[in-house]
Design goal:
The structure holds two protein chains of two kinds. Chain A is of the alpha+beta class. Chain A contains 29 helices and 25 strands. Chain B is about 60% helix and about 15% strand. Chain B is built from five helices and two strands; from the N terminus they run αααββαα. Chain B has a two-stranded antiparallel sheet. Classes of the chains: A alpha+beta, B alpha+beta.
Chain lengths: ~850, ~110
């Protein structure tokens, strides 16, 4: 029975049959099998198999392997070294052509390397966690607006129940993130602390630089990140130092630094700055109820022994659904629980609401798509140049070809020769490209977005990728010229009656293709640049100029600051609020009889409309003193639209079972950057005890002074707290930076693409001109002026340019509209004249390029042209 | 001498073939040599040595009987040709001559 299964692995044999000479096969196969069975008796089956494979590989010796026919037809080493010599001489002899080829390929390869690095960086995210396959985030599903929405927050007692009820679950970990103020000597900063169970560092394997992970068991210990260690303590080891942490105004506690995490790997989607024991919540929030199913915490993680168990756990979790749904109101009832594996959370986090993971990779995955497309297009551009130049310059090598063919080179040999030359050229381009990628492209991108991809050459996959790029490019660019060139009959070549290359229609096709691509790229650059100008001047829907704001810890501070700021003569009006446009809004769900809607809520005071320049288009804002306005709300136009209210004022809805009535409608304004669509939003009158923000409208031109005075007042009023506030214009300042980067990136890509196309045109024209030197000299002797010459050079390109643009303009239009719709929620209208403008720009550059050659011909002396033979 | 160029390893394999007589096939040669040299040898090295020497005419071979252990594949039994044996003898004589040419005195001096 058992003996039947003892067989050597099959695949090495198949492999062997390909390579070993036919007549040796039977003997060697038999030997191998006999040795295998000997080994099985002596060692384990696995070792015998391993030895078998290894022996197979060692059988690949020159005198045992087959003579493959294509290798047999020529003297390999001698000829190959000759090809290398010829290709290097060729590179040196025509520096312009070599430059165009090398530079083009190198920049395309540089971009490919960036695309690869970005790809790795995205997909390596979180993969450094040793338990990435056995750690899961517990999520809940609930129906929202007709679809099932996944939430990252979970009921507080869930972790404890899971630990008790499931033997498959090895560890659980609860996570709560809190805002705190950290004080060390005279340094005070606002920070985020992560309160976790001590299992956290066993599940998330962040290595520690100093200290021990077990110190998390101690409620008085804190573990900090390397960045925080440097911020507070400089270079030295802070273990043993004390930090004062203020949880809120009244509660603070001293923690002993017990560990410092090593610098986090760059490809991560969760991290921490301060890490302390979960039980601290008992003292920092006295009313924190650990056993309340109605209350949620930021995250619950479980670690299972075997990822196979997950289904069973998930199935068993259905019993909690009832417990959960009994304790909350109907609006918050959940549909089911979910478990999300850590290894793939970085992709999923985009669709999970309120989870603690940041920096989802969905945008990156879209960017990867773009980058791959751009890399391929750039390679295509560079290859087109290569092909064109190779075809056109073949005249210069006709004699060589004729001689090679007449002394016995077959067509195949010529093809191998040209492909070899190509691999040599591409190899040099690859070397330059690697340097370009590593030292120019990657640092440039990283600098634009202030991130680091931790690119390393040690990555084995990188070299596989580069070899593939090398081969694909070499063959893609070389195969057509090789086939074309090798076709000619030696007799015709040597008789000198053939003139080819210059009239090859394929050259025109490739050139046209390059022009179309250049047109697309240049259009994108123009549109992206114009679009960032457009968005910069787009109306936010409220008046964000001359407004400053401050964020405070409680109502009392708001009152204090308001009081002193109102004394400032520049301040026109002030408003207090619980939330603030652009900084914070509450997401709530409201119910009208027919449906439930997720909306944004800002609780404000009655001055808020005035101060922030929010216009009321229908009804009224809040009145002072009127208690009835406590149930009144002002909704925005988007909310009116999404609820299909014809007559919004007077409509009612319920939130947390309290009835609200619409008293006014305000104009839509952007609470988020222009990259997010407008959301249904409404204002309520804030409870005074909820005031956290103070906004101030100041006189035109006095914003800087007012801001300085605000900071000064703050530091005298609250010396213990770090300043928190700013210019309203800056709340989405990063967004404009991002937009400018988009414009910048596209301009660079467009420049490279246009440059590649231009180099191609330049190369072709200059080869064309140099091949017609005699013709031009004769024309000049006979009295041709610059007009005639330029005419005879341009003539062959008119039609090509016309066709390229006729195809390129509509294509560019379609492509750019697609990209704009994809990349931006709000963008400017793309008009066809924008594209035409871009095309005209392209034509101008092209004409300039060709004109340089016209002038060269015009300036040259006709006698020199006629003398050459 | 130049015609009968024989590498050290080839010579060992050739000697083994001569010694094993009718048992001289790939695996047996490998086994025997491994035992004597006290080191592991790969099938590839033995096979390529055998093929090389067959090309040079030191060895001939014919198929033997198929066996169960070899999955029904026949063995190839090698035997030395007269040319091969001559070359081996030549090598032996050259070596012996050289050995006898070493003056005894030199030994003693070295050893002392």
């Amino acid at each position: 029975m058992e003996n039947e299964s003892i067989q050597p692995p099959k695949w090495p044999l198949k492999f062997l049959r390909i390579f070993i000479r036919e007549q040796y096969l039977e003997e060697i196969e038999g030997d191998m099998e006999e040795i295998f069975f000997d080994n099985v008796e002596r060692y384990s089956l696995r070792k015998a198999r391993r030895l078998y494979v290894w022996e197979m590989i060692k059988l690949l010796r020159p005198n045992l392997i087959r003579q493959f026919r294509f290798l047999n037809t020529f003297n390999r080493f001698g000829m190959l070294s000759n090809y290398f010599k010829v290709s290097i001489r060729g590179l040196m002899k025509y520096p312009l052509n070599s430059f165009i080829n090398l530079f083009g390929l190198a920049s395309a390869i540089g971009i490919c390397i960036y695309a690869y690095a970005f790809f790795r960086w995205t997909y390596d995210r979180d993969q450094f966690h040793e338990n990435k396959n056995s750690v899961y985030l517990v999520t809940t599903f609930a129906p929202r607006e007709g679809a099932m929405q996944e939430y990252g927050r979970t009921p507080r007692p869930l972790a404890e129940s899971l630990q008790q009820d499931f033997p498959q679950i090895e560890k659980v970990c609860r996570v709560e993130d809190r805002n705190i103020v950290v004080k060390y000597h005279d340094q005070v900063f606002n920070e985020r602390i992560r309160l976790v169970d001590p299992t956290f560092l066993q599940m998330f394997t962040f290595p520690l630089k100093w200290g021990a992970a077990s110190s998390l068991n101690d409620v008085n210990s804190i573990i900090i990140s390397e960045a925080m260690s440097e911020k507070y303590f400089g270079e030295q080891n802070p273990v043993g130092e004390t930090l004062l942490i203020k949880f809120d105004r009244d509660r603070s506690k001293e923690f002993k630094v017990a560990g410092v995490a090593q610098k986090f790997p760059v490809a991560r989607s969760t991290e921490f700055n301060f890490l302390a024991n979960f039980d601290n919540l008992r003292t920092s929030e006295v009313d924190y109820n650990f056993h309340d199913w109605a209350a949620q915490l930021d995250a619950t993680f479980i670690q299972v022994e075997d990822p196979e168990d997950v289904r069973a756990v998930l199935h068993g979790m259905t019993k909690y659904k009832q417990v959960q749904n009994e304790s909350v109101s109907e609006d918050f009832a959940i549909d089911s629980f979910g478990l999300e594996q850590l290894a793939t959370l970085h992709i999923k986090t985009e669709h999970i609401r309120d989870d603690i993971f940041r920096g989802g990779t969905k945008d990156n995955i879209a960017s990867i798509g773009f980058l791959i497309a751009i890399s391929i297009l750039m390679l295509a551009l560079a290859c087109s140049n290569y092909i064109n130049i190779a075809i056109v310059s073949v005249t210069k090598r006709l004699k060589e070809l004729g001689v090679r063919k007449s002394i016995g080179a077959t067509r195949k040999v010529i093809i191998v020769q040209f492909l070899t030359e190509n691999i040599v050229t591409t190899f040099f381009a690859l070397l330059i490209g690697i340097l370009l990628g590593r030292f120019v492209v990657i640092p440039w991108f990283e600098g634009l977005w202030y991130f680091s991809m931790d690119f390393k050459f040690g990555d084995a996959n990188l070299w596989i990728f580069l070899s593939v790029v090398l081969l694909v490019t070499a063959i893609a660019s070389g195969i057509y010229p090789a086939l074309y060139i090798s076709r000619f009959q030696p007799v015709n070549i040597l008789r000198g009656s053939l003139r080819f290359g210059q009239k090859n229609p394929v050259t025109k096709v490739f050139l046209g293709f390059q022009l179309i691509l250049a047109c697309v790229f240049i259009t994108s650059a123009v549109i992206f640049t114009r679009n960032s100008d457009y968005l910069a001047s787009r109306d936010w829907g409220y008046d964000n100029r001359d407004v400053i704001y401050a964020q405070l810890p409680d109502e009392l501070s708001v009152e204090q600051l308001k009081h002193v700021m109102e004394e400032n003569a520049h301040v026109i009006s002030t408003a207090s609020s619980a939330q603030h446009i652009g900084r914070q809004q509450r997401q709530v769900s409201i119910a009208i009889p027919s449906r439930v809607l997720e909306v944004d809520l800002l609780a404000v005071d009655r001055n808020y409309f005035n101060t922030m320049g929010v216009d009321i288009v229908q009804g009224r804002g809040f009145n002072d003193h009127e208690t009835s306005d406590r149930q009144g709300v002002v909704v925005n136009q988007t909310m009116v639209e999404s609820l299909n209210w014809d007559n919004p004022v007077g409509q009612q809805f319920k939130m947390d079972s309290v009835r609200y009535e619409v008293i006014g409608v305000m104009k839509d304004f952007h609470s988020y950057s222009f990259s997010s669509p407008l959301r249904p939003t409404f204002f309520t009158l804030a409870d005074e005890s909820d005031y956290r923000f103070l906004s101030m409208k100041v006189e035109k031109g006095s914003m800087r002074d007012s801001y300085e005075s605000l900071r000064k007042k703050w530091s005298t009023l609250f010396p213990e707290s770090p300043f928190s506030g700013g210019y309203q214009e800056d709340v989405w300042g990063n967004y404009y930076v991002e937009l400018r980067i988009h414009g910048h990136v596209w301009r660079v890509f467009a420049s490279i693409a246009v440059m590649l196309a231009l180099l191609g045109v330049y190369g072709l024209v200059s080869l064309n001109v140099s091949g017609r030197e005699k013709e031009f000299s004769i024309r000049k002797v006979l009295g041709a002026n610059i007009k005639h010459i330029s005419n005879s050079i341009f003539k062959q390109y008119y039609l090509l340019f016309a066709i390229a643009l006729a195809l390129g303009v509509p294509l560019s239009y379609v492509v750019i509209v697609g990209i704009m719709d994809f990349a931006y929620t709000y963008h400017m209208e793309v008009a066809i004249w924008h594209v035409v403008l871009a095309a005209i720009l392209l034509i101008l550059v092209l004409l300039c390029t060709i004109s340089t050659q016209v002038f060269k011909v015009f300036k040259s002396n006709a006698v020199d042209g006629l003398k050459t033979e | 001498m130049k015609k009968t160029k024989l590498g050290e390893f080839e010579e060992l394999v050739l000697l083994t073939v001569a010694a094993l007589q009718s048992e001289a096939y790939g695996v047996e040669i490998k086994r025997e040599l491994e035992e004597r040299l006290k080191e592991k040898l790969s099938v590839g090295s033995i096979q390529s040595a055998l093929k090389r020497m067959e090309e040079k005419g030191y060895l001939t071979s014919q198929f033997g009987e198929p066996t169960q252990k070899r999955g029904g594949k026949r063995k190839r039994i090698y035997s030395t040709t007269s040319h091969g044996r001559k070359v081996l003898e030549e090598m032996k004589n050259i070596r012996a001559g050289l050995w006898s040419a070493i003056p005894k005195l030199a030994y003693e001096v070295k050893l002392a």
